[in-house]
Every structure is written in structure tokens, then in C-alpha cells.
Amino acid sequence: MWRKISSFPLRGVGDLLRQHMKLVLTSTELLRDLIEGCISYNWTVVQSAAERIAMAEREADDVKRRVELHLYSGTLFVGLKEDFLRLAEAIDQIADKSKDASRALASRQPGKEEMDELYECHIKIREIVASTVEIVKLLERSVELMSTDKKASLQLAQQVERTEEKLDDMKLDVLKYLTQKERSISTLTYLQARDFVFLLDMVADTAEEASDVITAMIVKSGA
Fold this sequence. Notes:
Elements: H1 13-39, H2 43-73, H3 78-106, H4 112-117, H5 119-145, H6 150-180, H7 187-220
């Protein structure tokens, strides 16, 4: 899509974006290890997953900076260059929010009785995590196809949006359940679980924002 109107130095941007996306997906996939450690009350696993997510996020930041350097050194229509920058930033925010969510959960170890009290909640959150990972996988595939199959890329970007809308209902169910359990757990544990859900929701929201950028770029290119 961009190769027809860009100079040679810009041709590496597509590969860097795909590399960036893979690291971001890794940071999101590690949320599954995080929640499994939480369900099994193994805080060593929880903290290890949080550390690995932070490492993936740092690597993603490094690649994003390389994307920016390629964009500045290449010749590209200004509006499209801004779109690439917006896309890289939106993708990077997915890893940022995954890191924030992991740190919220790993920040303290609630009591075993409280965790048992919230077991059903954690099962629901596991489903949200799985759906969130699926959204980011759809986005990765959309990014991968941007330069080779714009129609398929656009369809995947639209699927990201539809899947994210379903997640909103799942999030509300979890928050309602947490409210019901508010008096049987400590305030800190309640806030910790609630904040994790909110931050997890932001992961999906930022993925949707990235898909919106992809949609706009493809429409501009005349898909």
C-alpha cells in the first residue's frame, strides 16, 4: 500500500511494524499466565508473568522508536506518515496497558480466603483475558495483511471492533459480581481486582483504536 508512494528508506517500516506487533501480542498473551497464577494462588507465577510482560513492553518500545526513525528518514505523504505514527503509538499502548494491568494484579498478594471468595470472578476474568488476546491476534493479522491484502486487513480490523463490543458486556458482569462481594473482601482487594478489570478493558480499547487507524489508512489508500 505505502510502497508505491514512499522512498526506499521507508520500506522497512512494514517489517518493523509487524515485529512491533508480535512483541505487543506477546505482552498480551502473558496475561494468561498472570491470571492462571492468580487462580492457582501462585504469586511467584503472577510476579514472573508481570516481569516478562514488562520486558516485552520495553522491547516493543525500542522497536517503536525504530519505526519512528524510519518514518522520519523516508519520503512519504505527510498525512500518511502521521497515520503510521498514530498506528505505531496505538499498538504500543496495548503493551503499555498490559504492563499496567499486570502490575496492578501483582502489586500485592491478597489473603487465600479472599481469593477463594473471588474464585468465580477470576474464572470470568480468565474469559475476558482470552477474548482480549484474541482481539490482539486479530489486530496482528490485520497489520500483517495491510500491504498485501487490504480487503482482508480491513475485515479483520472491523472484526476487532465487533469483538471489543462483546467484551464490554463481560466486563460489566465482572464488575457487578465484584460489587456483590465487596463486603466479604477487603477494600484493597476489591480495588485491586476492579483496577485490573479496568486496565484489562483498556488493552482491548487500545487495540480497537489501532484497528480504527488501520481502517482509516486503508480507506485513504482507496481499498
